[in-house]
Amino acid sequence: MGSSRTIIGVDIGGTKVAAALMRVSLPPDDPHPSAEVHPPQIILRATLPTDVSSEAACLASIVACIARVVPNEPAVEGIGVGVASLMDVARGRAVHSVHLPLTDIPLRDVLQRRLGLPVAVDNDATAACIGEHVFGAGVGTREMLMLTLGTGVGGGIICGGRPYRGAGGAAGELGHVMVDVNGPECPGDCPNRGCLEAYVSGTAMSAVALAAAQAQPSSGLGRALRAGETVDSRLLARLATAGDADAIALLARRGEYLGAGLVTLVNIFNPELIVVGGGAAGAGDLLLEPARRVLAQRALRPARDQVRVLPALLGSDAGVVGAAALALTELFPEAPTGATMPAPGSS
Question: Domain spanning 4-124: which superfamily?
Answer without folding.
Answer: ATPase, nucleotide binding domain (3.30.420.40)
